[in-house]
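Z., the sequence and structure:
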Amino acid sequence: MKSMFARVTSLAMAVALLSANTITCRAFAGDAGEVIDSSTFKSNYKITTIHIGSDVYEITANAFRNLINLQAITVSANNPIYASYSGCLYDKQMTELLCFPPALSGAYIPDTVVSIGEYALHGVPQDLKDSIVSVVESQALEYGPEVDVPGAHFVHDGGTVKWKCADGTIIVPNTSLMAMSAALLNDCTTMNMRRADKLQSSFDYLTEILSYERSTEIPTGDWAEDYAEKALSTGKANCYGYAAAFAYLASGLGYESRVCVGTVTSSLGGRTLHSWTEVRLGNRWYVFDPEMQDAKGGGYYKQTYDSYPAGPLEKTGSFLVSFE
């Protein structure tokens, strides 16, 4: 380690030996800042932790390659270019993952991260690497521009909401349900909102504009479109109407969504028929129940079957909805 200390300081960087395998890297106070590149550490396999000081202004993509025992990177809060979280290195805005240490077994990735830098996952085990890529790709869809969302979905265009077809063509909504859904999204979302925020905003807005209407009718056949249209046109719905309307709104935002039917715990005891929505976020389906949200005042947005407040929720059937 002594020779490494000499080598690094010869690059006009101060390296403080904190332990046998931990080093701190920062530029000398008063100089113009320093660059960390592949020559800084020379693939030293003994390094387990690195701290980046406030004056480091550039870190090359391959700076940490072959540091196979690296477990954590921390960054001074005063560094204007870089940041760290949960042991990983990011740009200051935490939009790009720059290094996931290869010996780090797991970490929380901020939901603002939408890209992965070159060599950022070098040395990371393949299964963990696949999970990281999946998370970041999913977040890129959630938090990127709406025009980048693949497939057919609603977009803001010319001060209103229109329909972007799968081939990229933008058209005026051409069915009654599509037009009402577009009008609702125009009222509660903006072009610059993240898709995840649009989903929440449309869920909250739907529960505000709908009022519960009791009905003993049990829908049969292909009923979701009719129930969604009735809910949005009259402002009244039972659980089937709430679920169908939100499923179409979610689908219109580019999510896979489905209407579910089954039973839920009754406030009077026992079980009662019920309908809710499932939306696929990343690789997982989540429960959204706008009717129960309206009735209870909260707690029914983006739940799992284990976390659902009025559980157990028992599903007997489900089907996908789509405008196309």
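The longest strand covers residues 271-281. DSSP finds eight helices and 19 strands in the chain.

Let me know what you think.
H.
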